[in-house]
Amino acid sequence: MEPTPEQSPHHAYPDHWEADVVLRDGGTARIRPITTDDAERLVSFYEQVSDESKYYRFFAPYPRLSDRDVHRFTHHDYVDRVGLAVTIGGEFIGTVRYDRINDQGRPASAPADEAEVAFLVQDAHQGRGVASALLEHIAAVARERGIRRFAAEVLPANNKMIKVFRDGGYTQRRSFEDGSVHLTLDLEPTEKSLAVQRGREQRAEARSVQRLLAPGSVAVIGTGRTPGGVGRTVLRNLLASGYTGRTYAVNRAFDEGLATLDGVPAHRSLGEIDEQVDLAVIAVPAHRVPEAVADCGEHGVQGLVVLSAGYAERGAEGRELQRELVRQARSYGMRIIGPNAFGIINTAESVRLNASLAPESPARGRIGLFTQSGAIGIALLSGLHRRGAGLSSFISAGNRADVSGNDFLQYSFEDPDTDVALLYLESLGNPRKFNRLARRTAAVKPVVVVKGARHSGSTPPGHAVPVSRIPDATVSALMRQAGVIRVDTVTEMVDAGLLLAGQPLPAGPRVAILGNSESLGLLTYDACLAEGLRPRPPIDLTTAASPQDFRDALAEALADGTCDAVIVTAIPWVGENGEAETGDGQVLAAALHKAVAGGSAKPVAVVHVEIGGLAEALAAASSTAAPRPRTVTPAADRPRAATTPSTGPARSTAPATPTAPEAGPAPEARTTPPVRPGPGSPTDPKASPAPEAATGPGRIPAYPAAERAVRALAEAVKYAQWRRQAAVPGKIPEFLDDTIDEPGAAALIEAQLATAPDPRGRPLTHDEARELLGRYGIDVRPTLPAPDPEAAVAAATRLGYPVALKTTAPHLRHRADLGGVRLDIADEEALRRAYGELTDLLGKPAELLPVVQAMAPRGVDTVVRASIDAAAGAVLSFGLAGAPSELLGDTAHRLVPATDRDAAELIRSIRAAPVLFGWRGSAPVDTAALEELLLRLSRLVDDHPEVVSVALEPVVVAPHGLTVLGASVRLAPPPARNDLGPRRLPNY
Length: 988
What we know:
alpha/beta, 8-stranded mixed sheet, 7-stranded mixed sheet, 27 helices
């Protein structure tokens, strides 16, 4: 919305204050500044507010607004007087206004930093979180305009408004004056206010997805009159899945006399339907979608699944159509899955929804699946079906114009029917938020991700998202830091998902291998070693082993306290006539089920070769017992099993939850999900219930190759280790505060940026970088220029021998292999000789830019970097200098701010880490000093986002202490943060 000529030309309309938000009930609304064009909207809004709410707002009966009131509430300068409105369908449902005041409470201008604030919400929309959302946004606006405090007068009976202020998380003061409650809020964000904001965001976004997946009624718009076509296919799948809600077929081309289609009511428009429609599946050509969306919005539809194609995947024109589609839907308070979507599925017994193009609804299970690709969604559904796996929910988001993987994580986090979240992603619209949500979700249930379009260097067609410059290896490292299980293929994702959904988490990397094939056992053993596991020698049961032998061996392994997981390998039996007997899969599966029936706390996986029916039988539930607790107690903390072999079903000796901290890691932050109703209890007796889930307690995953089973188990081991560590989060050491001069660094940064008119910023000189880094306790060894031999000698005399002579020309920097560095120069004669050799070999001093530097103690050369990516945020990186990091890419990464645990893991996660810890008899270096350096650099870039890149190279780490020999720093105006302001939906 543009400003009118009546508004002050000095304060243009702030369109960056406009935002789409998700309200408490999952519906969306638009927040925007109020303009002079809103007079009629304001009057209409006020007429719909109850007399009681008006009294609470004005402290007196106030039946209508005068012309003066309307003018005052619609004319703002967007600095000292600001009004925001929440709109749905273009109409106001709530407003907020602030007026800057002085110490006496009178109207004022800057530098006054206090404002009086007042809210008004339509009674029909109270309780939806409208005022809470307005408070977040008006507080952000006020901070932008230099206001630090809000003052509010509230009647004591206005409990709802008092609660909004109280629950906001801001520091506040209260007093009772002249019959009203006087509140003062400090607007500086606090840890509590940010937690409140994110908690509201999580609940609202989860609810918005839940409304899409569990509608009470569905209308398929664009249902064909004849069999076939997208709309008719979705209607057929809805009916075949036994959907428990009401279903309608809608097509404006239906004959007026047509009453039903495939047994459901048929209508020409939504307006003909007498009841509320919660979800609309749109399957009409793209040019007709706006008409369908408007029809949905005007009749109260809550959400849309748009299957129609012809949007951003077709270029710039389609991208603008897609943006307009999102704007139109959100203006009515609706969220969108799509466009170009494949559909959604919810297998919950109370819903049984298959609003997709998938011809067969999957079995009920404990896996939630999100995909940005319809083709990949088809492949995943097919693969899970072949493996006998079940799903709790499925979303294929297509172009992902609105509902995204982040929303799915919000939903999965609190969905009691989902134990594992699988996501196929081709782009990350908000990587910072994704990492935050993934870390929180992974703390209670596994998150497995396949990232497509990793190396294309471009956004996939149809995905309009911010472009990140960080390489895929860095993205993978950051996902691992957040607890995400990152795999390369959809096959690996299914493999890991089956194990994680059906088996407990392993307590460690020790693996028992048993089976009736020595060769297959050895292949499994080798695969375990390759994946970093610790396998025990395989137990060969011989080809004569019976199912009972398998049962006994598995029960014994499960009772053995020296292993954390078991892999069973099996090949077909050879009969007396010499032919393979491949039909005994069900017998073997029954034996293995009996071995684990005692509730073992160890995961079991099966590798089999052509045993008919085994995978299907293993996927079947062995009991109706509640799921086993997913404890991750280390083996060392568990009571030892009896030393005598067990011949019956194994009984777990691991405590489900430790009773004291010293008994092991903290238990998980979630409770065991409730047992879901089994088959045979549908709410609609005429509907066919979905088959029982193939993931859950008692279901043993089977794999056709040892490598696939071991890789899935290795991912579970690493994830369980992350869970144990995440239960006790790292800290930022307090001793850093005593040696850091944050205000001094800020003053230096401000002064340096003031001299740089280029908005891209500027690099600091060596001396400037030394001074800035020194404010954070990072000492950089000084260098002195040596434009000629005499200057070199003078510099060496000043610094003291021995010295190093180095070139600093960009093409020779850090290139000792080219002869640009001479070390351990002991005296003047040697220095002059080295200077001459350097210039003779590489060029004139003016080209080489030589410098002299005092020698550092011998050690390992490393490189430490920090940079800010506009999409991902600040990233801290570490590696060994030279070939390991530059040629082999052996670099580790963590998000900033880094904790002490992050710093310790960072230096240990590179492949060349043994060099730091005494490899091949060398002296171990001072890794504690290196960790401290990492923490100091992390604090610098976290405290000062204007520091957009830092490179410390080389950092020589000696057995005692370290030396930073080179440093480069670049300053620039900080990139906009999309994760610290008030909650808002992205606009792609």
